[in-house]
């Protein structure tokens, strides 16, 4: 067998004082958002035809409600944000090895929701290897997506 090469991103990740649990949760949340976007797309908000009556005392602020403007701005901004997240994930996934890419794809991005032990059997690797590959891939994605949560050593508070 050949010599196992380590990814450059992985080497820098091991030096940092990273909160691994918080980082893993951040990456999993990011992957879930992208998975939902890829499956169902963006669901636009719509303005209500008639607003419900609410009593409003007129004060000196002269503030008015701009429901349609706020909804239109949200729809444009949120869709652009989701598209940017999708593109960024594609670029980050291209930096993974083929095995890491397949593990992340099966575990988080496919809509089948199969268990890890089933994926292990189909890929022909042990569960411990699967977990190790998955942890390495998540750490690389965390650095590439800038989701790594860094621990502060002096007060123990996590800062990203």
Structure characterization notes:
With 160 residues, the protein is mostly helical. It contains 6 helices and 2 strands, in the order ααααααββ. Strands 1-2 form a two-stranded antiparallel sheet. A hairpin with a 6-residue loop joins strand 1 (150-151) and strand 2 (158-159).
CATH architecture of the domain at 16-40 and 71-153: Orthogonal Bundle
> How much beta, percentage-wise?
under 5%
Question: What is the helix fraction of residues, given as a range?
Answer: 55-70%
Which topology of the domain at 16-40 and 71-153 does CATH recognise?
Arc Repressor Mutant, subunit A
pLDDT averaged residue by residue = 82
Strand order of the largest sheet: 1-2
* Distance N to C terminus: 39 Å
- How many β-strand stretches? 2
Organism: Paenibacillus polymyxa (Bacillus polymyxa)
Protein name: Transcriptional regulator
Descriptive labels:
160 residues, mainly alpha, Arc Repressor Mutant, subunit A, 2 strands
Short overview:
The chain is mainly alpha-helical and 160 residues long. Helices cover 57% and strands 2% of the residues.
Topology:
Layout lengths: L7 H6 L6 H21 L26 H27 L4 H12 L6 H8 L3 H18 L5 E2 L6 E2 L1
Helix pairs in contact: 2-3, 2-6, 4-6
InterPro entries: ArpU-like
Organism: Paenibacillus polymyxa
Protein name: Transcriptional regulator
């Amino acid at each position: 067998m050949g010599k196992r090469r380590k990814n450059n991103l992985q080497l820098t990740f091991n030096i940092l004082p990273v909160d691994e649990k918080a980082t893993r949760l951040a990456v999993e949340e990011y992957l879930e958002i992208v998975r939902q976007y890829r499956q169902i797309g963006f669901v636009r908000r719509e303005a209500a035809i008639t607003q419900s009556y609410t009593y409003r005392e007129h004060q000196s602020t002269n503030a008015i409600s701009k429901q349609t403007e706020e909804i239109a701005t949200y729809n444009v901004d949120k869709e652009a944000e989701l598209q940017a997240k999708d593109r960024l994930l594609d670029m980050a996934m291209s930096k993974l090895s083929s095995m890491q890419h397949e593990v992340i794809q099966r575990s988080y991005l496919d809509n089948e929701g199969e268990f890890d032990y089933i994926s292990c059997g189909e890929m022909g690797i042990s569960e411990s290897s699967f977990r190790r590959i998955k942890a390495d891939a998540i750490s690389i994605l965390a650095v590439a997506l800038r989701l790594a949560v860094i621990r502060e050593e002096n007060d123990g508070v996590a800062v990203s």
